[in-house]
Structure of Methylglutaconyl-CoA hydratase:
Amino acid sequence: MFNSYQTIQLKKDKSGVAYVTMNRPEVHNAFNAEMIAELTACYKKLNDDKDVHVIVLQANGRSFSAGADVHWMKSMAQASEEENKKDSEKLAALMRTINFNAKATIAKIQGLALGGGVGLACCCDLVVAENRAKFGLTETKLGLVPAVISPYVIDAIGTRKARRYFQTAEIFGAEQAKLIGIVSEVLADEDMDEWVENQLSLLKSTGPNAKEISKKLVMSVVGRTLPQQKKIDEYTTQVIAAVRVSVEGQKGLNAFLNKEKVSW
């Protein structure tokens, strides 16, 4: 176990598997600036680690990730558009770092996966969810939009379904998440570790370089290379920055922070 992180845990085994565990269970592993920075730094290091071939993303506690931390959201509400853009660029860098990571990536989901939590799942190659897990792209309930995560969610579920779930902000179960493409497999909690081990066995049986080239091949064929993604991120971060400081965005954020129901 490596203890240089405050909000995540990293463990590597001798077979080339790295386990990255989000460790803010008291807030359902909600994102704050520190967690975003630590996850980004961790995945960058693992990307360059020749001894690592697969990365498993998981979470301590009842939930995978409930999205944005309330204190982080408070800082959003008080920040300028320029400050919000710089802030959102950090989340964009995290999603980009995971999505374009050279290593095979697996996400293991329990409890809630909301907003950015869904984004993390969509950036991974394989996703297993506990059968009671709940998912949601809930940003529009707050007058916001799932801008930064949108490229990865749209990759996973397609444009038509994205138009539905981005606008309705509905909560849906693990089976629905599998049906629309967010999740690879849905299992009881006690069966998830076995599924992960089976996938690890399959991944270990294939050439590391071949896996990396295969991922790049998929990205290139669909027209989404890393430089192209950076251009897309420039647009998505501008969108969310403008929405956060808009009248509607401020209304939604303040209602959430004050635990009030917003009327649209």
Observations:
- The beta strands are 8-12, 17-22, 54-59, 104-109, 112-114, 126-130, 134-136, 171-173, 185-187.
- The chain has a mean pLDDT of 96.
